[in-house]
Amino acid sequence: GSTLDRDVPYLPDxxxxxxxETAKYYDFAVAMPNLGGNRIRAPEQAMNYRNAILDRxxxxxxxxxxxxxxxxxxDTDPNIVRAGHKAGAWASAKxxxxxxxxxxxxxxxxxxxxxxxxxIRAMEELGMCLLIHAEMVFDEKNNLIADREREPRALLxxxxxxxxxxxxxxxxxxxxxxxxxxxxxxxxANGKRIEATIAPxxxxxxxxxxxxxxxxxxxxxxxxxxAEEDRETLVRFMVEGGGMLGTDSAPHAIEAKSxxxxxxxxxxxxxxxxxxxxxxxxxxxxxxxxxxx
Length: 293
What we know:
The chain is an alpha/beta fold. About 35% of the residues lie in helices and about 10% in strands. The strands form two sheets. It has a six-stranded parallel sheet. Helix 3 (about 80-85) links the parallel strand 4 and strand 5 (about 90-95). The chain is globular and about 50 Å long. It starts with a strand and ends in a 10-residue tail after the last helix.
């Protein structure tokens, strides 16, 4: 059967190196739209980006396909959402927390998520999927929220969206906390159209790896790795049939990952991600779920 990676950021400076790695292992990928000044805001951008990816992927996998979501901003026009969908440019849109992760400077303040309701309403009408990087960056007093608390705090904004748009398809991206697992299970039990992707590093590492023998920025990804209880909860959720494959494989040059300040978050796991998932299923007796996942 086909293999799908539902969450892949391709950063422009390493574009040619990393796309073949996806194409070797997967037949379909969702390529994230956080491209800085070239972030995906117009249908022609999405189609051009898709073609650029296919040009580099198809020599390695002739069946490879890719979807490019729209990048949601506070002022995203619902008519652009509709125009891109009609043109076949996108079937989903990505909601980033402003200043919370790589390429999210133009994202949305989760305290003001209702500002993009017109765009989300158009998505619901069209049957599009909303992809959410669920992290709340600032609290009501404008203070930065501690990294490990950002995902649990953002679940309130996600709940608000689900309540307002009961027919909307939603994917919580790269969940990392037991609170997110509990929320997704609760929403699904209440009939919400929600799924969650799980990145491989959150299944095998907890936060202690960041400081084992000193600081290890090469293991730093966003959301921040959580406690062992969170890792175990994610493993249990996945093995019992929850979640979807989405590696969030984020390549950065080793010089950037080794900086003394401003080290970017992201783990390049594409060459090993599929094997990590299978290993977890095999270790925990859930191989019958692997194909579905």
